[in-house]
Amino acid sequence: MGKGIIVILIANILNMVFGLATGFILPKYLSVETYAIIKTFQLYLSFVGLFHMGYADGMYLRYGGKNLKDLNKKSLKTTIFTMNIFQMIVSIVMVIASIKLNKLLLILFSLDIFGYNMVDFYKRMYQAIGQFKSYSRVINIVTALNFVSNMMLLLIIKSDNAYLYVLGYVIVDYFMLFVLTIKFSKIFNSIKICIFEFNELISNIKEGILLLFGNFSSIILTSMDRWFTKILLTTIDFAQYSFAVSIENFLNIAITPVTITFYNYLCRIQSKTRIIQLRNYINIFSACLMTSFFPVKFILEIYLDKYYQSLNVITFLFASQFFYIIIKSIYVNLYKSRLQQRRYFIQVVIVIMVGFLLNVLLYKITPCKESFSVGTFISAMIWYLICILDVKDIRPLAKELLFVIFEVCIFIVSAFIFNSIIGFVVYIITTLIMIFIFMRETAIIMLNFIFESIKNKGWKR
After folding, report:
1. Sorted alphabetically, which keywords does the UniProt record give (predicted)?
2. Are residues 31 and 135 in the same domain?
3. CA-wise closest residue to 315 among 373, 361, 254, 358
4. Residues 308, 432: one domain?
5. What is the pTM of this model?
6. What count of other Cβ atoms lies within 10 Å of the Cβ of residue 66?
7. What is the pLDDT of residues 213-223, one digit of tens each?
8. Nearest to residue 359, comparing CAs of 216, 212, 220?
9. Domain extent for 45
């Protein structure tokens, strides 16, 4: 698990460099309308997983915790080929429908269904079988190529045409799919027969449909605020809110290594004590990760003044991530590893309904973009509480709950009251005090582990 986290974290550092450059350069130099169209396309892409109807999720559950060398190569090739044909048909049907609607953005989205979902399918496979180096490589290539595409259009061609940028994303996905197809064809070189297996299609969809709905419901929950902003507010509001979300997504650079490796790990362990210990690590990790908000605030103060009005939104989105990190790292992975997809799905549906009502109520009270970020924050808290109450065998002690509550309050106060530099100092000092009071033993274990890892040069232990 340690190796997996480090491998993906190193890969995500490169991802962060390109992501930061793209995240700050595009909104700086593109028109607000162009930026809004690009973010609308990316919002559409967050729902593209629906079009495989749970097939990729079924594969993910089937291969979770296994090794590539132990898999039946013929069966695996059939699984991949069936997904290919299935998604190709879906993509063609959607392109035809989009052409009839005469919506260029929908046409580009429909074209990308096949490429995007197949690349995601391979990434999920790498996650499930613990091939974290391969997973990281795919992420790095896609991120780097998207960056190059964006910078060529911005700096060389000097285009403000949103559809050219969107087309760049589509081309990159298909290029990555081509590379992955060649790579896997070498693995299956001895297996000559490729067939579309209808029973394979139905079996994977049947096994993965509830997990798909759960993941889809989670996407609805986390993207609901953007849909409300897009429908009810102005284009400028949507662009500013989307910018805030893109900044929030930088947290995935640190979060993704944990959420991905934990699934493979939790498939193998059953110790409740160990799971609780992992959650305590995540609590401290989340508290430390919140410090990344203050450099973002500093950049907005001196560089991106036209998006400075998104700062309050960013604050609440960052605060909500404190809960989401714990939920996604521990509880969601636990539901998946225990094959409790139905419970996960029902839980997320409840949170969605609560979140929808919160967004409507808060918008009625104050019709502004900040209302939706507050709704997201409260929804995250409610989901966290539901997870605690639902998974009875690993319920946290009072000191763990107090640590989480105090940390979130300290972050919000530091973010709103002080400027970026003073807020950074205040948050770090108070966080260290909270760790000393509530999480001292866990912090000592984490520090010892880090020092031993450095001493033993690269996780030899």
Report:
1. Cell membrane, Membrane, Transmembrane, Transmembrane helix
2. yes
3. 373
4. yes
5. 0.70
6. 14
7. 777 766 777 77
8. 220
9. 1-196
